[in-house]
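Hey, I'm writing a tutorial for new members on how sequence and structure tokens pair up, and I'd like a real worked example in the thread rather than a made-up one. If someone can provide the structure for the chain below, I'll link this post from the tutorial.
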Amino acid sequence: EDKPEKNKDEEPIDEGLFTELRMVRQRIASVENVPAYVIFHDSTLKNMTKFKPITKEEFVNIKGSSENKYEKYGEDFISVIKKHVGN
């Protein structure tokens, strides 16, 4: 298992949540038959992991997200985040 190297300027993130979000992204990408980064870049998923958006407003304010992406994918990602933070 090759672990990504940690940049010193990057604060540690919740790897468990990040992995779950990547799995959601992968599932959507498979269904839509597009590369995963078309859904969201890793950096956007890391921001979701850090800020844990659970409302539309929070979600669209994540760097790399948008109203359009919220409409298409928001609920999928938010439900994972909510489960993870125990709401």
